[in-house]
Design a protein that fits this description.
Order of helices and strands: HEEHEEEEEHEH
Structural class: alpha+beta
Shape: elongated
Bound molecules: zinc ion
Number of strands: 8
Helix content: 40-55%
Length: about 210
C-alpha cells in the first residue's frame, strides 16, 4: 500500500535482464581469453605470435603445424590458406602474459580497444592512437598504411563474419582471375602452334610446287 511501484523492476524487465546477463558473462570470458590464449590451440600465447585480418591471435607454431597437417577447422578458419593470411605481431608482453602497447603501456584485456597494423605488425592501444593523433603512419615505425590495414583485436562476431566473407570473396575472385589468365595463355599457345603448323604446311606446299 502506498507503494507506487516506481522503483520495483517490472517482471518483463527482470526476465530481460536475466536473459541478457548470461550471454554477456560468456562473451566477456571469451573476450578475456582471446587476449591470453591462442585462438586455435587454446594454449597460452607465446612469441612469435600472429594475427589474421579478423583480429584473431594465434601462436605462430600452431598455425604452421595446422597448415602443414591441413588440420584447420574448415568452417571457422576457411580464410586461412597460408602464412600470407596472417601477420606476425610486434609487441611486448607484461609479466602476467598480456599483450602490452609499447607507447601507452596499457595491457590488452581482450575488452579494451586494441589494434595492429597489417603492413608492419605493430600493436597499439586505442589510447595511443587517439592521443598521438595517428593518421596514416605507424607511430612506432613510421610505415604508411590505409584505413583498412588498421585491424581491431576486438571485432564483434558479426564484424568478423562480414570480414571473413569479404576475404573469401576476394580469394575466389583472385583464383578466377588466375584461371582466366592461364586459359588465355593456353589458348594463345594453341593458336601459335596452329599458326606454326599452317606456316609449315605452306612452306611444304611451296617446296612441292618447285
Ligand atoms: Zn609499425
Amino acid at each position: 500500500m502506498g507503494n507506487d511501484g516506481g522503483s520495483i523492476p517490472k517482471r518483463c524487465q527482470l526476465i530481460k535482464s536475466f536473459k541478457n546477463s548470461k550471454p554477456k558473462k560468456n562473451q566477456n570470458l571469451i573476450s578475456y581469453s582471446r587476449a591470453k590464449y591462442c585462438s586455435l590451440s587454446k594454449e597460452k600465447l607465446k612469441k612469435p605470435i600472429v594475427a589474421d585480418r579478423l583480429g584473431q591471435i594465434f601462436n605462430k607454431k600452431s598455425i604452421i603445424e595446422n597448415l602443414i597437417n591441413k588440420n584447420l577447422p574448415n568452417e571457422t578458419f576457411r580464410h586461412l590458406k597460408s602464412l600470407k593470411d596472417v601477420k606476425e605481431l610486434k609487441c611486448e608482453f607484461s609479466n602476467d602474459g598480456k599483450i602490452k602497447c609499447k607507447i601507452s603501456n596499457i595491457e590488452f584485456s581482450g575488452i579494451n580497444k586494441f589494434y595492429f597494423i597489417w603492413n608492419c605488425g605493430d600493436v597499439l592501444s586505442l589510447d595511443a592512437i587517439k592521443n598521438l593523433n595517428m593518421k596514416n603512419k605507424c607511430l612506432l615505425c613510421g610505415q604508411e598504411f590505409k584505413k583498412e590495414d588498421l585491424i581491431s583485436l576486438n571485432y564483434s562476431k558479426e564484424e568478423k563474419e562480414k570480414i571473413k566473407k569479404k576475404i573469401l570473396l576476394e580469394k575466389k575472385e583472385k583464383s578466377l582471375m588466375l584461371q582466366l589468365k592461364r586459359k588465355r595463355e593456353e589458348n594463345k599457345k594453341n593458336e601459335n602452334e596452329i599458326n606454326d603448323n599452317n606456316n609449315e604446311n605452306t612452306i611444304i606446299k611451296k617446296i612441292k610446287l618447285i
